[in-house]
Amino acid sequence: MNNYIQIYKNVISDEYCDELIEKFESKPKHHSDDDFGQKIYENKNQDHTSYKVINLEKCKMIDDITKLTKVYFKYIEQYKKDCDIKPNMWPTKFNFEQFRLKRYLPNDRDQFTPHVDVNNHEYARRFLVLFIYLSNNERGETAFPQMGVASPCKKGSLIMFPPLWPWLHAGLKPINTPKYMTGSYLHYRKNNE
Question: Is the dihedral of CA 155, 127, 90, 84 positive or negative?
């Protein structure tokens, strides 16, 4: 199962990482609290997630969506090779979920405790996670506690893995500097799309 967790280093330049962070910080009116965690957990009082997020489409960051899409397509093909995915294992057509930028502050609160990204009908179209770290951090890794695996929070690195129940994962707290990342999910596509 661990082989479906793949990490690719230096998929975007340090300069582009810095540019995306600067864009995030320049748009405070677009920052929102995560609502995904509130949707997937029945216990609304559970302290499971805290971070800020912006939607690139809503912020009119179309050039960035185009640039990131090219990067993702390149590494999707590499992922399929590295995981020995046969043509009949992969959908012939898929979509990207809205692209987002996220920031976790080193405040001993911002984190995303262990969860899966597909556990209800609303999110059942997701079949692959794509996250690029935009900053280095001593901690803040994506951890898979049941597998004993963690992805270091390294600037320009991409982590890809299935969002389903066997891949329980957590976004750990950064400890020294803010953790920034951008990401999306691949969606199964309806036949008429």
Answer: positive
Mean pLDDT score of the chain = 90
**What's the confidence (pLDDT) of residue 138?**
87
Range among 1-5, 33-37, 86-90 rated most confident = 86-90
Instruction: Indicate the domain borders of the chain.
Output: 2-188
Average pLDDT of span 18-29: 95
Q: How many helices (H) and strands (E) does the chain have?
A: 3, 13
Given a cut of 60, whether residue 39 has pLDDT beyond it is: no
| Rounded-to-integer distance, Cα 121 and Cα 50, Å | 23
Q: Tell me the HSE value of 186 on the side-chain side, using a 13 A CA sphere.
A: 21
How far out from the chain centre does Cα 182 lie?
6
Closest CA to 137 of 190, 170, 177, 106: 177
- Domain covering 2-188 assigned CATH 1.10.10.10 in the classification: no
pTM attached to this predicted model: 0.90
Q: What 3-state DSSP class applies to 182?
A: strand
* Strand ordering across the sheet containing 111-115: 49-50, 111-115, 169-171, 142-144, 149-151
- Compute the half-sphere exposure of residue 90: CA atoms within 13 Å on the CB side of its CA: 16
pLDDT single digits (tens) 144-157: 999 999 999 999 99
